Amino acid sequence: MHTTQLESLLNWRYAVRKFSEQSIAQDKVDKLIELTGLSASAFGLQPYKVIQISDQATKQALLAHSYGQQKVLDNSHLLVFAADMSPLTSQIERYIQDFKANRDLDELVYSQMEHGMKDALKALDGESQYNWCSEQAHLALGTLLLAAASMEIDACPMTGIDKAAYDEVLALSPLNLKTVLIVPIGIRDSSDVNAGTSKVRKSKDLLHIEV
Description:
- This protein has helices spanning 3-12, 26-36, 56-63, 88-102, 107-121, 126-150, 163-169, 204-207; strands spanning 48-53, 77-84, 154-155, 177-186.
- It is α+β, with helices and mostly antiparallel strands.
- It has a single domain, classed as NADH Oxidase (3-Layer(aba) Sandwich), CATH 3.40.109.
- The protein is globular and about 60 Å long.
- The protein starts with a helix and ends with a helix.
- This is NAD(P)H-dependent oxidoreductase.
- Belongs to the nitroreductase family.
C-alpha cells in the first residue's frame, strides 16, 4: 500500500455518528475480524476476544447501558472487545503449543520462551491483568479501524459504556471475559454530515517532540 493510499484511507474513516440500514455481508465481517487478528500484541498472546453481535434484541438490551448512544442499536454488527481474564499461565501454554505447531525450533527455545513470558507476567494481579489486556485490545482496535477503512466498512470505537452491565447482559463472567470497548460497524448514512467534514487534529509541532 502506497503512502498516498494509506493517507486516503485515514482521511476517509471517521467516527460515524449515524449508520444506514445497510447490512454488511457476513463474509466481510469474518474477514475484518481475521485481519484484526494480525494486529501487534505483546508476546503475541492476544489476551482478548472479539464478540460479534447482530441480534437486535441483544443490542437493545445493551443500549440501556450505553448512555443513549443510538448507534449501539442502529448498526450492521456490534463488536465488543473483551479482556481474557483466564489464567495467564494457561494462555501462555496455549500460545506455546500454537507456536510449536507453526515453527520448527529446538525444544529448549520453547521452554525458554514459556518461562520468560511467565516470569514477565507473574506479578499481574486481577486489576493489572485487565489493564494489560485492555492495552492489547486497544492495539487491535487500531488494526481493525484501518482494516475496516480498506474494506469500506464504517466504524465507531466507543468506551462510553457501562462495562460491568455489558458483562452481565452478555454473560461474560463465566467465560472469564470482561468488556473493554465496543465498535459498531456498518455503512454511513447519507444524512451524517460528519462524513464530509475535514478532520481536526494537532499540527505536527503540537503532536511531535524530537529528542
